[in-house]
Amino acid sequence: MFDLSRRQFIGSLSALGAAGAAPGMAFSAVRKTTQAASAESAAAVSALEKAAAGFGNPLRLPGTSGLYGVLPASEFREVHVVRTEIEVLPGQRTPYLAYAVESGGKQFLNPALLARRGDEMRVRLVNDLDEPTVIHWHGLSLDARNDGNGMTVVEPGKSLDYAFQLRDRASMYWYHPHAHGFIAKQAYHGLASLLFIDDDEETALRRELDLALGETEIPLVLQDRQFDAQGRLQYVPTATDLAAGWVGERLLVNLTERPFIQAGRRIVRFRILNGSNARTYRLAFLQGGRRLGFFLAGTDGGLLAAPQRIDESFISPGQRLDVLVDLREVSEGQAVTLASLAFDPMHAEGAGSHGGHDAGAMEGMADMAGMDHSKMAMPAASKANMAMDGDAHALLRIDVKASPAYSRKIPAVLSALPAAVAPKGAPRRMKLALDVKGHWTINGWTFDPKVVPVTVRRGTAETWLIENARRSMPHPMHLHGFKFRVLERLGSPAQVHALAGAKGLLAQDRGMLDTVHVWPGESVRIALDFSHPFAGDQDYVFHCHNLEHEEAGMMIRYAVKG
C-alpha cells in the first residue's frame, strides 16, 4: 500500500546523496485565435474548477515502501512480476499486476527508481505470471538485448537478466511491459512505474529552486480506467477499441480518483507522465475562470535549454512533461485546478465525424478501409465502457496555503541542450495510414516479428518525415533506442497550429523526445543520430504508443547495422 508520509519520502531521497533573473524566454508563438483553438469561456473554466472543488481524496505519493515506494536503482536487483490486490477505489480491492521487489526488509510494488547518470543497473526479472512479459525501459538508450523491445520475452516461470549503464540525460523515464500481444492488457492492469535519472544540471535546478522530490517536485501519472461494481479493472477491447484505442471513463492521477494536494506560495514542479493506453490530454492550470501561465522546463529526454512560458500543452500516451508553476502569481484563498481542456480528438478524421469513440466515427473508419460496418459496430457493452477522448475533465485540485517567504526565480538557462540540427540528405519517409483491411500501418507495413523493413547505418544521422494521412486519427509515435529532435511541423490542425511558433514547432518540440504526437494530415520532420557504443548490430522497434494500435500491428522493426 501507499505510505503517504512526505517527510519519510524526503528522508529516503536524502539518503541517496547529492540530490537568477526572471526568464524572458517565453515561447515565441504568435497565438492565433481560431474557432478550433479559441480560449475557453470563463464559464467552461469555472465549471472545471467547480468540479475540482468537490475532490476529497489526498493525492497518493510514493513512500518508503509499498506501491510506488522509492528505491535506489542499485537495489532493484530481483524483480518478480506478480498478481496481487491493491485499493484503488476507497474500500474496494482491485486485482492488479505489479513488479514486486524486496529490499532492506521492505516490500515494494512498482517501485519509483532513483539513479544518477553513469550508474550501472543489474536486474533479474522473474515472471510469476501465466503469460509472457518483459520490461521495456521507455526512453533509455540501450542495446537491443536490454531494451526489452519484445523480440526476447520472459515465459511463465522463467527469468531474464538485464545489465546496462544509464547513459541518458537526467529526466523522468518509465518502465512497462513490451511482450507483443500482452502489452496493452498488462500495462492497463498495473505494470508500469517511474525511473528518475539525475545529473549535474538536474541537481543545479533543484538547488536553485529549492525543490524536494515528493514535496515541491511532484510526479503525476495520468491514467484513465474502467471498473466494475466490485472495483475490478475492466479491459475487454472489441474490434472498435483496437481501431480507436481503449479509453476509460474514470480518470486517475497517481491511482487517485478526484485528488487534491496542498502547496505553498512558491515555485512547484510537476513531472507529468501520460500513462493512459490511448487518451490524450490538453493540460492547463486554472484559477478564477482563467488559464494560468506556467513554464515548460523539460520533456521526454530531460531539461530544455531554456524554460518556455505557455498556458496549455497537449500530452499523448507515453510522453512526459516537466513543468514549473509559480504559485506566487495566483490569488490567495482560491484553489488552482489542473485540468484537461476540451479539444477535437480527431478520431476517424476525414470520415465525416469529429467525435470521440462513437459508433458513427467507427463506421467512418470502416468506410475508409472498405470494411463491413457490422464488423466495426460498437456493441452496447463497449459503448458503456467508453468516455469520449477530448472531453474536458478536472484532474487535480491544488490548495494554495501560506508558506515561508520564498524568493527563488526560474533560471534563464536550464541546460546545455544544443539547438536541433537537420542532417543532410533527403528524409526517410514514414507514412501512417489505415489500409484496406482496417489495419493501422507504417509505410503499409504491420508488425511481423520475422521482418526488418528498415535498416540504418551505425553512426549516421538521418531525417525522418513522419506523415499522417488526412483520413486518419492521431498517432503518438515512439522510437526505441534513440531520442530525436523535432525540426518542423507541417499541416497541423488549427487547434495545434494555434500553439505553434516558428516552423510550426510546439514548446515541447524544443526538447529531446522519444515520442511525438502526429495529428491527421500533419507531417513531422525529426532528426536522429544513430551513433551508439554497443558491439554488433542492434535491433529496435518504432511504433504507435496508442497501445491498442501497437497491439493491432502499428509497429515495425528497424536495424542499426555496423
TrEMBL record:
PROSITE patterns: MULTICOPPER_OXIDASE2, TAT. It catalyses: 4 Cu(+) + O2 + 4 H(+) = 4 Cu(2+) + 2 H2O. Residues 106-201, 438-561 form the Plastocyanin-like domain. One of its GO terms (cellular component) is periplasmic space. It is found in: Periplasm. SUPFAM superfamilies: Cupredoxins. The keyword Nucleotidyltransferase does not apply. Its main location: periplasm. One of its GO terms (molecular function) is oxidoreductase activity. Its EC number is 1.16.3.4. Keywords: Metal-binding, Oxidoreductase, Plasmid. It holds the Pfam family Cu-oxidase_2. PANTHER family: BILIRUBIN OXIDASE, CUPREDOXIN SUPERFAMILY PROTEIN. Monomer. This is Multicopper oxidase CueO. It comes from Sphaerotilus sulfidivorans.
